[in-house]
Amino acid sequence: MQDLSTPVGEQAQSSAPLSVNVSSGAIRFAPKDGASAPIIPARKHGWLSRLRSYLIFDPLIWLYTVVLGIVSVPVSLFGEKSRILHRFAGFWSWLIMKTILSPVAVTGLEKIDTSKPHVYAVTHASALDIPVLYVYLPFQFRILFKKELLSYPIIGWHLRRSGQVCINQQKPTQSIAHIRSAVKSLQGGMPLVIFPEGGRTPDGEIKPFMPGAFYLAIKAQADIVPIALVGTYELLPMNTYHIKSRPLEMRVGEPISTAGYSLREMETLSAKVHQAMESLYYGGTAQVGPDAPVRAEQSSP
What's the whole-model pTM score? Predict the structure, then answer.
């Protein structure tokens, strides 16, 4: 068993090709091939936005969570538990996305054969990434999550009862049973959603990956589909309850095959997925072939 707590792919990490004007907050993308760099003015969110978030958005989200979380427990006793709880999670997510007034543009998903059990590797910048995925991935799936989330009331209950995959990052050996179950689930046709960075990014940049999720993909011989959620960091970063409504994007890349990979090549696979997700997130073209460089080339916005 590989150590699930060691970051890999650090050589694939990069920073966004932009500069920020501190005085104005404007964002300037780095030019390429002599092209002029467009400037995107930063949107300001003042006290009215804070009041809307603290007095309307946040209380409603807590209300949805408590009511649906409690109701889902007895309802799930009558029928297939995992399917019923997934529908509850989907409805909870739909309510949240309608409430926060942040439309999502989805690109690339139409090219994916969603009937196959892929591993969906997703960037993670916000607590609101989860509702986006439940609303815009049109199939049932399981999520790889950190054991610490089990301590949260209602959320922990749902994660435990709905068959999600729990990983103990401090003591990986305690996760062996869950990992074996996840491999069988993938082989049986159930897609898996993972956040390979191991947690939310504190600054909006893609961080080095943890290798555990790619262990699952290699063992199950499941293709990895990179997904970049763009705008969720600006919507709700860590350590705040201020939701700043804005348009979002879910960019879905081409599947990356795990055929022929062994566990010894997990770091190579991780770097390949990392560069594909960077390319999606920062707006470049992913290069995932055997001769691809460590970092994907970025194109001008």
Answer: 0.79
